[in-house]
Automatic annotation (TrEMBL), chain A:
Pfam families: TPP_enzyme_C. This is Indolepyruvate ferredoxin oxidoreductase alpha subunit. One of its GO terms (biological process) is small molecule metabolic process. PROSITE patterns: 4FE4S_FER_2. It comes from Sulfitobacter delicatus.
TrEMBL record, chain B:
It comes from Sulfitobacter delicatus. Keywords: Oxidoreductase, Pyruvate. This is Indolepyruvate ferredoxin oxidoreductase beta subunit. GO terms for molecular function: oxidoreductase activity, acting on the aldehyde or oxo group of donors. Residues 260-472 form the DUF6537 domain. Gene3D superfamilies: Pyruvate-ferredoxin oxidoreductase, PFOR, domain III. NCBIfam families: PRK08312.1 (NF006179). Residues 26-211 form the Pyruvate/ketoisovalerate oxidoreductase catalytic domain.
Length: 716, 514
């Protein structure tokens, strides 16, 4: 079950003609898919479209009623491959994943799909993960559209436009027999707003009906000589058809005065930010009515030469606002102008930065810079000649610490990295590669374990060069999500086949945790529509890994260290795989807390563990924190003039996972930690025994206290 | 040739767009707060747009939510999707360093921003890791916020919320209402909480205290302040011993003013550790320092010595730990801390891991020294003792064992560990006093180096190693005018990281010029 439930919101997907939907962008996209008669949907989770997968999963019942098939695909490649259903059948299909890493994985299928061409509308909804909040390398998905010749929509980021883009996308795809990518940026996915809904449409042909009446046509198969024909078909037929559809249906928009000496060409997704810059310069009103003409590219690929040329007519300066690099759009538009021998001056990356997110400030500066060149008289006086000095605000760069994401309180992965850190202290530093997933936080302080990530499921594969063994075996890390996504064949299969003498640690937290706790094949929970409970260790044995160690409680730091030591020192040559399994604490708490509270309320016996630190015993050396970094294990300054340094302190957010105690024990740190289990609804015998014990303890304490001087309280 | 476009007056309605950003630490409930704000704005006839960044970026990391709203008209406004520097009306920061981050990113400006911040700290890993005190300076953030914000509301919103049995999103929402930064009545806010439907009553309570805090009407929490004023260095115990204690206190009372408070604290610490005779020994040791010190020097050396001699004398041996773990107030304190009510029982598990060194330390001095010198015996002891022990101190067997160990005070001064500690103390203090005449400042800094010795087992050994390195480096620096400064610098370097890399770098620098 995913971290966030959309069960309540999913009811809004039933709205019909004339209703108003208010909510998040991803829900609106789902609604639009249903309104446009989609026949099958799928995808692979990953920010910023994880919630789209969660919404689809929660909407499975509704989709069932409409005859829509939903697949939680094994990977982006699987998702893109599923669009093959639209090759021969007039069925609309949509899949979603993140870009560009998801697109990278999907690119094989996308390229084949683009070559074959489609009959039914094929829509790829890509969450473009660029800029603040992104967790991946910064690249654009745009290049994929250019190389494989599929079309790219980048609608203005509001709900009416995004939902319209879904409709446009399907129609454009069908009109040009080409898959279409609908790009939504990080914030567009989670932007809230309203749009008017229509009735949901049952697909004219369902996948079940299609499978009952199979079709095939070898002309659509990517094999010579058909593939040569596909290549020509793309240019001679599909592209012109797409251009015609985009032009006729006015998918791109023009705003502002018809006549002006300057204009701005903007990706649809950047429209709001450009308007904000113009608003701040007094050149646009609250509704976006602008003094500077705008040519809004809701379709960023292909670009329409004549439409663009028309926009440029009579203008002396045109600015292209295109986020990220390379500047594909600016290059193409420049080439158009050059070939048309136009005199208009094209600006873009000269006044705007080539790389990085176009934030409010960046665009304000960029548009101001453009206007200074193109029409300085339009700029407000204050910009042309600033007279008020802004007050100097102290620079806090050296004061405010960075706060990268990290392991949650009680995370079962923390003890794995604590054990690896202790192993490093014992056996020295090893060559370690990471993978994608929460476990990649292990490369950050305090652990600093691992030095690279090459892609999902590629942790062990990225250590292959060192797999020959030697004085020190290399270690690689792989998550359960990555294992099932790609790791089983690409990493583990690779190790087995090449007789790798290295160690792989598989971090199994029962979910695809980093993306929001979606189920994977080895999840332990029961799932009505998916097959779970397929153990990783069984799969390992199946592909020929002989040395497998299964750890069922990652919090046992001592045992983990022992197993790591064994893997690194054993005489066994060949792949050594450790599967370290414990449930993601975020999901565990979400699942167990309500049950526990209910049990307590009903009078059932319950133990609730939490850890603490004796401030008197802690010396403030923080060794425990260097093996933990847990948010609930923090520091506290004591009100004691004899103490220089703050002591460790565990706050009430502790979930009692046990890592602190285990680490203190295994690393032989100190005796400051204690575990307090509060027993709710104790049994009568228990209470009687506890009372008797307390009486004896109290008597002993009093007897000793009667003979000595002591401070009255405890240090807090 | 430019076609001239006349410059228009900026649209006044653009100014009516309210821009609000929430900066929080992942997991703090920024989404709930944003949801309330959004729902309220819509219910009050505003068009509203919210954006956020979900996913792995939120796992305990800094995260941001953004809301824009404007009165509803015939046409929809165009809203931005992310806050821009210099263009934020209300900034809510759910933690003190996030307040700092908001200021740093330019989201707080004197011409427009109401800044609502929580002063509590959720320490970043980098702050917690340092072996010394790496906690960022909140006062600097406060000072910057005071300059940057047009209106500033800073309170411990976390504490207020927890006190009301709720979470910080509710108290911040209350503070937003109390700030008057949004054109909505208090009821509108409360309705939004009620409409949310989850934990309504506690949320409303926390909302109310947040509201009062923003309006400066928060009831001062007087009791907490009063508690702190209670004399911290009082010892309690049987009357017979109280006389001895009073005598020691009056002896300490005669010490010069700059030394007095620390000496009293130190005295209480060592007597609590051992007994009054040990306290007298402490004062004797302090006297040897005082004899070499003077009022002209402001008694700086003695003040530092009062602190560090006490710390050195009250070392962390098994007896001390066992004693502290079995004292009555501790049990009461933990029950409170864990919020265990009368209806609950509490099980208490201690995490111990003794090593051969601790066992040898507990032996009589000569025997202990012999055992520690013998690899065979140490290996044997490790075999017997070196493993993690979980002791249930709420049960009799473990309690009795620790109670017995904690009662070995009468024997403590004969142990091997005590001999080691005394030798180290004498050596250290002697070295410091040797410097007094030639370089007083250096002597003071050397006394302060005792701060480096802390922790148990490996950590303790590393601390000792660092201490030795700094003290040895002092030998190299002797005679130089900046010797004291350098020793201070080396000490700070030693506290920066666990492995002493910064210290080694600093010592290399020292070697390069001496």
């Amino acid at each position: 079950m995913a971290e966030r439930s959309f069960k309540a919101e999913v009811e809004h997907l039933r709205k019909g003609d004339g209703d108003v939907f208010t909510g998040e962008g991803i829900l609106a996209i789902t609604k639009a898919l249903l309104e446009n008669g989609v026949g099958y949907v799928g995808g692979y989770q990953g920010a910023p479209i994880s919630h789209l997968m969660d919404v689809l999963a929660d909407a499975e019942e509704l989709m069932g009623e409409l005859g829509v098939r939903f697949e939680a695909n094994a990977s982006e490649a699987a998702a893109a491959a599923m669009l093959a259903a639209s090759v021969h059948y007039p069925i609309r299909g949509a899949v979603t994943f993140k870009g560009p890493v998801g697109v990278n994985v999907a690119s094989d299928a996308l390229a084949n799909l683009s070559s074959s061409g489609v009959t039914g509308g094929a829509l790829v909804i890509v969450g473009e993960d660029y800029g603040e909040g992104s967790s991946i390398m910064q690249e654009r998905s745009h290049g994929f559209a250019m190389k494989s010749q599929f079309w790219m929509l980048d609608p203005r980021p509001n709900l009416p436009c995004i939902t319209k883009a879904v409709k446009d996308g399907f129609e454009l795809s069908e009109a040009s027999n080409t898959p279409v990518m609908l790009m939504v940026r990080i914030r567009s996915c989670h932007v809230t707003g309203s749009f008017e809904t229509k009735d949901n449409q049952r697909p004219p042909l369902t996948v079940a009906e299609a499978a009952a009446n199979p079709r095939s046509d070898f002309n659509r198969v990517v094999l010579p000589p058909m593939s040569y024909l596909h290549e020509k078909d793309k240019i001679e037929n599909r592209w012109p058809a797409a251009e015609k559809f985009i032009r006729d249906n006015k998918l791109n928009e023009v705003f502002g005065p018809e006549k002006a000496p300057l204009g701005i060409v903007v990706q649809g997704g950047m429209y709001n930010s450009v308007i904000r810059a113009l608003q701040r310069l007094g050149l646009a009103d609250i509704h976006g009515e602008t003094d500077v003409p705008l040519y809004v590219l809701n379709v960023t690929y292909p670009l329409l030469k004549d439409e663009f040329d028309n926009f440029c007519a009579g203008k002396e300066h045109v600015l292209v606002v295109e986020e990220g690099q390379p500047d594909h759009i600016e290059q193409q538009l420049g080439s158009y102008l050059y070939k048309l021998e136009r005199k208009v001056k094209l600006h873009g990356k000269d006044v705007l930065p080539m790389a990085g997110e176009y934030t409010g400030q960046v665009l304000l500066d960029g548009v101001t810079g453009f206007l200074k060149i193109a029409a300085p008289e339009m700029l407000p006086g204050a910009v042309r000649a600033p007279n008020a000095e802004a007050p100097a605000i102290p620079d806090l760069t050296d004061t405010v610490p960075i706060r990268p994401p990290g392991f949650c309180t009680g995370c079962p992965e923390r003890p794995i990295f604590a054990a690896m850190k202790l192993t490093e202290q014992e056996l020295g530093k090893h060559q370690i590669t990471g993978d994608i997933g929460c476990h990649l936080f292990g490369v950050l302080p305090p652990f600093e374990i691992g030095g690279s990530t090459m892609g999902y499921g590629l942790g062990p594969a990225s250590n292959a060069a060192f797999d020959g063994g030697g004085d020190k075996r290399v270690i690689s890390i792989l998550g359960d999500g990555g294992f099932w996504h790609n790791g089983l064949s690409t990493s583990i299969g690779n190790m087995v086949f090449n007789k790798s003498d290295s160690v792989a640690v598989i971090v199994d937290n029962y979910y695809s945790a980093a993306t929001g706790g979606q189920d994977v094949m080895s999840s332990r929970a029961h799932n009505d529509t998916k097959s779970t409970n397929n153990p990783i260790s069984k799969a390992l044995k199946g592909v020929g890994v002989e040395w497998v160690r299964q750890i069922d409680r990652t919090y046992d730091v001592g045992k983990l260290r022992e197993v790591l030591r064994e893997a690194l020192t054993t005489d066994y040559k060949g792949p050594k795989v450790i599967v370290a399994s414990s449930e993601c604490m975020l999901n565990k708490q979400r699942r167990e807390k309500p049950l526990r509270n209910k049990a307590i309320k009903e009078g059932r016996r319950m133990e609730v563990p939490r850890f603490g630190v004796d401030a008197d015993v802690c010396t403030g050396d923080h060794a425990c924190i260097r093996l933990s970094g847990c948010p609930s294990l923090s520091l506290k300054r004591l009100d004691d003039p004899l103490r220089d340094d703050p002591v460790a302190h565990i706050d009430q957010t502790c979930v009692g996972c046990g890592n602190c105690g285990e680490v203190a024990d295994t690393a032989v740190l100190c005796p400051s930690f204690y575990q307090a289990d509060v027993v709710h609804n104790p049994t009568r015998f228990e209470r009687w025994r506890a009372d008797k014990t307390a009486q004896i303890i109290r008597w002993l304490q009093d007897r000793r206290d009667a003979k000595r001087l002591r401070s009255e309280g405890v240090t807090t | 040739m430019n076609m001239v476009l006349p410059q228009k007056t900026p649209d006044v309605r653009v100014e009516k767009i309210i821009k609000l950003a929430v900066m929080a630490v992942g997991g703090q409930g920024g989404g709930v707060l944003t949801g309330w704000i959004e729902a309220m704005a819509r219910a009050e006839g505003y068009v509203c747009q919210a954006t956020s960044v979900a996913g792995v970026a939120q796992r305990t990391g800094a995260t941001i939510y953004y809301v824009e709203m404007a009165p509803k008209g015939a046409l929809d406004p165009v809203f931005a999707l992310a806050p821009a520097a210099g263009d934020v009306d209300v900034l809510i920061a759910a933690e003190m360093m996030e307040v700092g981050r908001a200021v740093m990113r330019g989201f707080v400006t004197p011409d427009r921003t109401t800044l609502i911040g929580s002063t509590h700290r959720a320490l970043a890993v980098s702050e917690k890791m340092a072996p010394g005190d790496g906690i960022a300076d909140a006062d600097e953030v406060r000072a910057a916020a005071e300059i940057a914000a047009q209106n500033l509301i800073l309170e411990d919103m976390e504490g207020l919320a927890v006190g009301a049995g709720s979470v910080i999103s509710a108290s911040l929402f209350g503070a937003l209402a109390g700030s008057g930064a949004l054109p909505f009545r208090r009821e509108a806010y409360e309705n939004a909480i009620r409409a949310g439907g989850k934990g309504v009553e506690p949320s409303l309570r926390a909302f109310a205290v947040g509201f009062d805090a923003a309006q400066g009407k928060l009831q001062q929490t007087a009791p907490a302040a009063a508690e702190k004023e209670a004399a911290p260095f009082q010892l309690v115990g049987p009357e017979a011993l109280q006389a001895e204690w009073t005598a020691l206190v009056s002896r300490a009372d005669r010490l010069p003013e700059p030394v007095h408070d620390l000496a009293l604290a130190g005295l209480a610490k060592v007597v609590n550790f051992q007994d009054c005779a040990y306290g007298a020994l402490y004062l004797d040791r302090l006297d040897t320092v005082l004899a070499r010190d003077s009022a002209a020097r402001d008694w700086r050396l003695s003040a530092e010595a009062a602190k560090y001699i006490a710390n050195a004398m009250a070392y962390d041996d098994i007896i001390r730990v066992a004693d502290l773990k079995t004292r009555a107030p501790r049990f009461t304190h933990i029950r409170q801390e864990m919020r265990a009510g009368d209806a609950n029982l509490m099980q208490l598990t201690e995490y111990f891991h003794p090593r051969a060194e601790e066992i040898a330390g507990l032996m009589p001095a000569r025997l202990g020294a012999r055992v520690e010198a013998s690899d065979k015996w140490m290996a044997r002891l490790n075999r017997w003792f070196d493993k993690g022990r979980r002791l249930r101190t709420d049960r009799l067997p473990a309690f009795l064992m620790l109670h017995f160990l904690g009662g070995l005070k009468g024997y403590r001064l004969k142990t091997h560990r005590h001999a080691i500690e005394v030798a180290h103390l004498d050596n250290w203090l002697g070295r410091c006093l040797d410097e007094v005449d030639a370089d007083y400042a250096l002597a003071v800094e050397l006394v302060k180096c005792r701060r480096l010795i802390k922790g148990y087992s490996d950590t303790h050994a590393r601390g000792l190693g660092k201490f030795d390195k700094v003290v040895d480096a002092a030998d190299l620096l002797r005679g130089r005018e900046d010797a004291a400064d350098w020793v201070a610098r080396l000490r700070e370097a030693a506290l920066q990281d666990a492995d002493g890399e910064a210290l080694d770098g600093a010592i290399a620098t020292v070697r390069s010029f001496v």
